[in-house]
Amino acid sequence: MPFKEKSLIFAPMEGITDIHYRETILENYPEWDFVATDFLRAPSVGPYPVKHVLKHYGKSSYEDPEKQRKTIYQMLTTEDALTEDTVSKIRDLGFKWLDLNLGCPSKTVCKHRGGSFLLSDLQALRKVIKTIRSHFPHTFTAKIRVGYKDDTLFKDILRLLEDEGVDAITIHARTRDEMYKGVAKWEYVKTAVETVKTPIVGNGDIPDVYTLPFHNLKFNLSKEFGKDNSSKISLKFENILNDKFESVYQSFGAQDQIFSSRYPGQAISLGYSYQF
Ligand SMILES: Cc1cc2nc3c(=O)[nH]c(=O)nc-3n(C[C@H](O)[C@H](O)[C@H](O)COP(=O)(O)O)c2cc1C
Questions:
Q1: Ligand 1 mean position to 115 CA, how many Å?
Q2: Which ligand 1 atom sits closest to the C-alpha of 170?
Q3: pLDDT, average across residues 189-205
Q4: What is the mean pLDDT of residues 246-250?
Q5: Exposed e or buried b for every residue in 80-115, given b needs 16+ CB within 10 A?
Q6: 238 Cα: distance to centroid of ligand 1 (angstroms)
Q7: How far is the CA of 49 from the centre of ligand 1 (A)?
Q8: Is the pLDDT score of 247 beyond 90?
């Protein structure tokens, strides 16, 4: 098992989980066990210079051992791209966790036979996985969808990844054609756990806890008086409606539940100040 059970892993998101976003999460929310870069696309012609591979990850996370330990390097490739070269550079920089993106639904990526396209061509998928596995001795994981057009190859894909020595599989429980629509079907996560022994990470429509609006109606009154307005009297009311703080737990297939509820109470204060 490459990580502890029930680890909390922040999903990679191109254009969102850049170095600044990831470091903000790592510095402020230590409950997250891991974060991930978005995907570095292996080039088809002309290998990347090492500094490009490092830049994708971000120098400050690279130079901080704890941030490096908690940051997964994600890549995306195709059967014909420079997989071996890209993986070797990631390995030689010292990264210990490489994730392969097999879920990207983008038309351009799929047209070039990368991302979720590989879920429809198991021969090409095996070739790519073998190449990465034989050049990356540390944790190597794959992030998949349940299939390309449909789920018919789902179990074959899981077994292939297991046979080729992938250390864990993240399942975004939608097909490629579903893109990000509808709800992720977590039954597939269960099926995966029952099909292979490889650790499975569930992804998609994770339950949410959010705070309902809090109607804190306030009233402030102050009056200056006396010689040179040196005296001031003030009156304050807080939470006139006596509203409560409430947060709600929301999850697919379950009824919304109140997660926490408390009355902060009302407050009245009367003040007097004098300026000498
Ligand atoms: C804007 C955006 C960018 C994404 N970029 C990536 C990516 O670079 N690599 C990846 O594996 N998944 C990527 N994903 C997919 C997410 O990691 C995740 O699998 C998907 O959003 C399902 O989770 P959700 O239902 O909680 O949004 C991206 C998703 C979004 C919305």
A1: 12
A2: 19
A3: 96
A4: 81
A5: ebbbebbbebbbeeebebbbbbbbbbbeebbebbbb
A6: 42
A7: 27
A8: no
Q: How far apart are the CA of 172 and the centre of ligand 1, in A?
A: 8
- Using the Cα atoms of residue 191, residue 193, residue 198 and residue 200 in order, give the sign of their dihedral: positive
pLDDT digits (tens, 9 = 90+) for 7-28: 999 999 999 999 999 999 999 9
264 has pLDDT over 80:
yes
Residue to probe by mutation, ligand 1, list 14, 39, 171, 183, most atoms within 8 Å of CB: 14
The candidate with the shortest Cα–Cα distance to 256, out of 265, 246, 264, 266, is: 246
pLDDT surpasses 80 at 255: no
The residue nearest atom 10 of ligand 1, judged by CA position, is 12
**Phi, psi angle pair for 99, to nearest 5°:** -115, 135
Chain mean position to CA 67: 15
Q: How far apart are CA 108 and CA 174, in angstroms?
A: 19
Q: Are 170 and 10 in contact (CB under 8 A)?
A: no
What is the position in ligand 1's atom list of the atom closest to the CA of 37? Answer: 8
What does the pLDDT read at residue 156? 98
Question: Nearest 5°: CA angle at 44, between 43 and 50?
Answer: 30
In the chain, domain spans: 19-204, 209-274
228 φψ region: left (φ > 0), alpha (ψ -120 to 50), beta (else) = left
Classify 19-204 by CATH class. Answer: alpha beta
pLDDT band at residue 248 under the 50/70/90 scheme: confident
Q: Which residue's CA is the nearest one to ligand 1's atom 23? A: 204
Around ligand 1, the residues with Cβ closer than 6 Å are 11-16, 38-39, 74, 101, 103, 143, 172, 180, 184, 203-206
pLDDT of residue 257: 81
